[in-house]
Each structure stands twice: as structure tokens, then as C-alpha cells.
Amino acid sequence: MDPIESEANLRSQFLEVLRSRRSPVVPLQTLPAKCVVEPLYQGTPCDYEAMKSVPKAPIHNFNEENFYLITEEGEQGQLPVLILSKKESTHLKRPAVVFLHSSHTCKEWVRPLLEDYASRGYIAVAIDSRYHGERAKTPTAYEDALVSSWKKGDTMPFIYDTVWDLLMLADYLTAREDIDNSKIGILGMSLGGMHAWFAAFADTRYSVVVPIISIQSFRWALDNDQWHARVHSIKSVFEEARIDLGKDTIDKEVVEKVWNRIAPGLASKFDSDHTVPVIAVRPLLIINGEVDPRCPLEGLDATISTTQKAFDAHSLTHFKVIVEPGIGHEVTLSMLKEASDWFDKFLKP
User: Fold this and answer.
1) Which stretches make up the Peptidase S9 prolyl oligopeptidase catalytic domain (predicted)?
2) CB atoms < 10 A from the CB of 52, how many?
């Protein structure tokens, strides 16, 4: 099988998994929503200082849109969307960037980035991922959804369900008259970075991709006993699985069974060494911390090597990996600056 056919086959398999646990799909439509004044944060969200340090942009010249995009039937099928754009007298199509928040936060958390990019002429888009923000009814909604997924096997709240939403979001964005369809970028941090990675793998309409502190190898972590930090970040589902499996402690078997149940293929055919190279030849910037225990660098050798080969036939200037020395699972202002420069390089008119 040639590489193009192989990539198409892998993408098709992934889309089949996404569709396997969907409620009935509905026609693309929007419903009006109000600006969220008091957003819900769950548990102990990552309070990255970098987000507070994003340069303040003047906000008097923005258009703000708040609405729900209906991605499927049911409560979680209402995707909350926030869009900021600069008021313009021209009718030229503009580049867009989708920003994806980390675990336990929400779309309002990335608002400093929306304001910064909108002030520079981008159409800046943010969503609440599944069981976050407006889609969360309780402070434990996300963790509860993960446990339910393990118990029932009817949803995929860890990564995959939000990726489905992002495919529907791409349908919406490409239908807008003010967006250049060839210039839709996507940036995510931590969990949001995984959403960006898989959305770009599944949908080529995301043309410039920046996953921050998120690219990792789930298979390598299992095989090399380096899964603990990732598991600890959503520990309740693994504790529930441990009990159900009659184990005294969470071990490799428990972790692998959870991944297979709540995100089929995550630690096998859809792992990073298979899916990240498929993003080529679209511009891809990977940013990780040198000592991030959730994304061990040692596990990324195969992914980076395979991705470099995928870009070789085209342009290696479209692929870059940045590892920040001494940084763990943390977003820094320099990471955000690198991402901004990347989008300006490939998306700005």
C-alpha cells in the first residue's frame, strides 16, 4: 500500500471509531448564546502564568460572537463557541485560528489569546471541550464522564468526542464568507493540544497546527512504565477500573484496558507515531517541555523521525519541534510567542 493510500485508510479507520459512539447526527445549525460571565473551572486546573502574561489588546474594536453549534443530538451535542474578530470595513476573507483549552478549564480561559490574535486581524475561535465550561453541570463533570465511559463504553470524552466536534466546527468555519478556507489554524494546550493533534490528523481543513505540551506516545509510556503522570491527571477513571478488575493497585494492565475502552486505538494504531506524520505536509509546530512527565521526550523519537521523513519529500521548513529546557507540564510565554510567529509565517496574508 502506498503512503497516501495508507494515510487515507488510517484516517478512515479513525473516523469510523468516531462515528461508532455518536448519537444521531443533525443538520449543521447554530443557536444563540450569551457571553459567559462566571465560567466553570473544575478540580485543580493548570494555572499557567503565561496566559496571564499575554499582551493586553484593545477590546473596543472587536466583534464578539457567542453561540452553540449543534454537532449531534443530546446535551453534549451543543458545542459552545466564542469568536472574536476585529471590526473591518473591508469584506476580505481572513485567516482563522481555533484555540483549545487544557483540562478542567474552558474557552474563556483562552480569551487573552483570542483578543491578541483578533487585534492582529485573525478570526479567533474558542470552544468548550466535552464536559467542560458550559457543557459541565458540576465541578466533577469531566471526571464523571470518564468513569461513565469506562463503565458503559458509550461515549469517548477523552479526546475523541471533542475531535468530532472539531470536524463539525470545520464544516461551520469553511461555510463562513469572512474566513479564508485555506487558512484555518488550530492550537491547543495539554488536553487541547491532543484535540488539535487528532483533529488535524482527521481533517485536512486544519491547515496549520500547533499542539503545545501534548504530543506523546501512549504505547511507549505503557511499555516503559512511564504512564503514571498522565494517569494521575485523570486518576478517578483508573481507580474505578482498578476496582472493577479486582486489582490492588493501578498497573499497566489497568491503564491499557482503560485506554482501549475510552479511546480505542489510542495506544496502538492511532498513537502519535502513526497519526502525527499524517499531518504532513501542512505546517506543524510541536512544542514540549524538556522534563514534562506526561509527555516524556524519550517516547517521541519514533514519532519525530517518522514525521520528519513525511516532510522530507516536500519541505522540512514546514515542520519544527521546540523543546523548552527545564520545563515540565507547563505553558510558557515563549511557547505562545513561538506559536504566534508560526501562524504569522503561514497564515497571515
Assistant:
1) 118-344
2) 9
- Residue in this structure with the C-alpha cell 519514533, named with its chain if needed: 302
The mean pLDDT of 153-159, rounded to a whole number, is 97
Residue 86 · residue 119 · CB < 8 Å: yes
Burial of 251 (0-12, 13-18, 19+ CB in 10 A): middle
Q: Which amino acid is at 279?
A: I
pLDDT per residue as tens digits for the range 229-276:
999 999 999 999 999 999 999 999 999 999 999 999 999 999 999 999
| Average pLDDT score over residue span 216-235 | 97
C-alpha cell at 119: 487585534
Question: Which pLDDT tens digit goes with each residue over 18-70?
Answer: 999 999 989 999 999 999 999 999 977 666 788 888 887 776 788 999 999 99
186 strand-pairing partners: 98, 209
Nearest to 348 by CA among 206, 182, 187: 182
Write the single-letter amino acid at 310.
A
* Cα–Cα dist 217/296, whole Å: 8
User: How many Å apart are CA 346 and CA 349, to the nearest integer?
Assistant: 8
